[in-house]
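Lab notebook, design round three. We kept the backbone fixed and only want residue identities now. Task for the bench partner: fill in a sequence for the structure below.
Input structure tokens:
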């Protein structure tokens, strides 16, 4: 019965393939494939690499890859008993001493693996440091402000509620606010106010004509030339009115 290496060689030659042909297809250097067929395991390196190469080579040749690895383990003495199955039995052939080129190739492969591992670790550490630097510092969240504590936004009433157009001969318009209301007032075509006025505000204007637009008609009273007109509508109504303050 053929040995492990002879079984690989016989299967390869049966396919009329050279070591170079196989190397191109499974991407294992032909020198390692030759070492497998010669059972020169020390030329390949650590057993973990040998097992991987044996498994890949056997699968490519149509052999039982797991059985091939088991026989390799038995050759190493990992498992007791002789060899069985298609790979035959007997002691492994003495392995010839590896050439200097094989040792150099193995050292270069190990150096490459170490270099890749080192750069990967450095890359991971660099990414971790960058993520820590980029992590935003969260400012303490301010306590939510209760809606009940929010004061209504209103315009500050002017110290002098009397707005004069500078003509003593004009009529007088008096506006008294007893409920918060938005108010827009124009006198003689000139806008005087357009804002929310709080309850208790009183505005006096002089002129010939006036127009009023109020957002809470029930909360505003109007007097024209001393005559109380009263509120312009119901609470919450939006009303617009015009007044002639001086007869033409």
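Proposed sequence:
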């Amino acid at each position: 019965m053929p040995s492990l290496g002879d079984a690989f060689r016989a299967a390869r030659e049966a396919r009329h393939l050279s070591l170079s042909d196989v190397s191109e297809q499974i991407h294992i250097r032909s020198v390692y494939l030759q070492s497998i067929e010669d059972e020169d395991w020390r030329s390949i390196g650590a057993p973990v690499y040998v097992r991987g190469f044996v498994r890949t080579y056997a699968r490519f040749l149509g052999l039982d890859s797991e059985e091939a690895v088991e026989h390799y383990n038995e050759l190493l003495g990992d498992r007791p008993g002789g060899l069985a199955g298609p790979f035959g039995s007997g002691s492994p052939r003495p392995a010839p001493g590896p050439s200097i080129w094989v040792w150099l190739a193995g050292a270069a492969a190990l150096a490459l693996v170490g270099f890749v591992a080192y750069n990967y670790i450095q890359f991971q550490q660099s990414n971790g440091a960058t993520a820590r630097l980029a992590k935003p510092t969260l400012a303490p969240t301010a306590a939510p402000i209760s809606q009940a504590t929010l004061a209504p936004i209103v315009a500050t009433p002017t110290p002098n509620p009397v707005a004069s157009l500078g003509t003593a001969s004009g009529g007088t318009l008096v506006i008294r606010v007893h409920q918060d209301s938005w108010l827009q007032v124009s006198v003689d075509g000139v806008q005087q106010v357009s804002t929310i006025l709080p309850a208790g505000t009183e505005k006096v204007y002089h002129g010939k004509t006036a127009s009023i637009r109020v957002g809470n008609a029930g909360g505003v009273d109007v007097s024209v030339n001393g005559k109380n007109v009263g509120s312009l509508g119901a609470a919450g109504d939006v009303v617009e009115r015009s007044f002639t303050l001086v007869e033409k």
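Keep this in mind before ordering anything: Strands lie at 162-163, 171-177, 181-187, 190-197, 202-207, 209-214, 220-224, 227-231, 239-244.
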